[in-house]
Structure prediction request, 403 residues.
Amino acid sequence: MSSEDYVRRTAVTRLDIPESESSLLRETMQEWQNACQIAAERAWGSTTDATSVQSMAYDAVRDETDLKSQHSILATHRVADTLRSITEKNDRGWDAPKPQFTSPTVAYDQRSMSFFDDGTVSLATVETRVRATLRLPDNEDGYQQQFFENESWEVTQSTLHERDEAFFLHIGFKKTAESDRQQEYGTVLGVDLGIDNIAVTSTAQFFSGDELKHHRQELRRKRRRLKQTGTRSALRTLIHIENKERRIARDTLHRVANGVVAEAKRYCCDIIAFEALDDIRGRLPDGDMFHSWAFGRLIEYITYKARGQGIGITHVSPEYTSQRCAECGHVAEANRSSREQFLCQSCGASANADYNAAKNIGERAVRRVQQPTRRMSVSRYALKSGTVTPDEGFTPQDGRVRG
Ligand SMILES: [Zn+2]
Prediction:
């Protein structure tokens, strides 16, 4: 589902905070302003993409401010939002300058803020968390109550403000537009990552790894040549070339990530499943730092983009995903007749090896993720022509696919 499929509301409430803890919140707001300024300095004029701002500024924010990890990420994302709206204005002929972050606010999300049944909220700061009491109207008709009482509303990004020495929490809520007729059971998209095919989905979408292989070879070739030269200026050139190659590779990875998330949306999947990153890296030839970096980035991009669409991510153990037949479950090394081809020694099914692996990853995620997540458990994984429910079998698609 796309982000437009969410209904969003904000509930504003005043907070009661012990005076001793107010200073921690003020300090956090100050560091938040610093963090936003650092990120804006780095990203201004070059990007408005949240993931890119994050990768450009995260380390500096962590080094130069006292913000914890989650707040550092949120600050870079908030800056990306700000830069995007400035860019949109400037595209329409405005001449807005680089933003200055001076107002006393700080953003929160589910990882940096928790609500409790006793009407309190705990908020992350630059040090320990502080506990505050929500000053919701006593009158039960206060508009804020409905969001807390109705389970289909979910807390999302929120902002703490200080005004006239009082703290106000603007709590963001969202619910899916169709949450009243929400599916009881979710669907998984299995994804196999590799070098020849950078990604293959259980719905038989193939993303070629050729472009990335090409970048890696280019890098190696140029590195070898410059290392032979060995001069200081050759070293500078090398760094320049590496940065440029990585930038081009990042664009490729963004395109693949967009493609995978689009595929998940197209087949109405609720979760995307991969093998764990360490396992994917473990299969790489020694010293292939480039692909090790690329897989890390790809998973990061997909995770971030999927989250924006309300799609979750899960990782499964890779055991036998390449040797197991997705049709009959038979496991044998001999099933893998070549690097590209899978041929089951038991039932004779043949398939592209990566596609077979993607289906196994989907099935494993279904079996593994059967604990309910967000009032929903996954029960099947997506294929091009329908879905598979383990132990029950194949269901042809019934018009659920969005074109
Ligand atoms: Zn088989």
Summary: The chain has two domains: 15-143, 185-396. The first helix runs from residue 19 to 43.
